[in-house]
């Protein structure tokens, strides 16, 4: 993609800084390889996680039957037999969120370190920037699928209720080794979130900032706002868009732009919507609204419902009405 993604970053960052983010072909330089390889081990499992989540059908029928016929042992066994392997999947998803969190922290460390500015980092470490984008892209896709699948919480609630009943009656529970009580509590909190992966990432980013007291918070927030600007410019400039070699790159850029806005809004003290924000929110929302409506409703909802500062008094009426 080379020069195609040569874009002018947002003027209030580093005026006149020309650089491109090659989301399609970026390869790691020698200095990036260590972090890149660590993150790659995690990312190579991401597609499989999404496929498993997409095909997650739940045990709603078996659970209903068991609840309606509490005295029928066969139906109880059938429901339990259906739920246990599903909880194994839910455990795998949760454990992946922990691996993703560690990967994100490694990337943040590399992309915010001194002496380089965020723009210089993104320009010099394109492959790491691409991985950061891929984590955000995965996160929004995971959460979109999770939000539309109520079976996940129903299955897990049934599993926990049945397990505690078995304990009371001293019935040995196969599969209990799978998820002990402490892990079950953490999984419950995770799946209770509307957007669990996004919550994991925003908590990890906030924690990264608070643990690195010697690193100005701007190093992290400017990295996010620069990335949002680059995505917006690539999307709103017809000559760049027309030359994307892969049609998926448009939806990739849209998701990444929304992901970094949400992270910025959670990490920055005044958030993404204030007048002083380094993200052009009106421009970003306009880019979203210019897409076919059915393709971006999930992303607009993510801005409406998973940001932190949208409803603050400091958010302009115009931005609020654009998102209504």
Automatic annotation (TrEMBL):
Its main location: membrane. The gene is CYRIB. Belongs to the CYRI family. Keywords: Lipoprotein, Membrane. GO terms for cellular component: cilium; membrane; mitochondrion. It holds the Pfam family CYRIA-B_Rac1-bd. Residues 18-320 form the CYRIA/CYRIB Rac1 binding domain. It is found in: Membrane. The keyword Lipoprotein applies. It is a lipid-anchor. GO terms for biological process: cellular response to molecule of bacterial origin; negative regulation of actin filament polymerization; negative regulation of small GTPase mediated signal transduction; positive regulation of memory T cell activation; positive regulation of T cell mediated cytotoxicity; positive regulation of type II interferon production; regulation of cell migration; regulation of chemotaxis. GO terms for molecular function: MHC class Ib protein binding, via antigen binding groove; small GTPase binding. InterPro entries: CYRI, CYRIA/CYRIB_Rac1-bd. This is CYFIP related Rac1 interactor B. The keyword Lipoprotein applies.
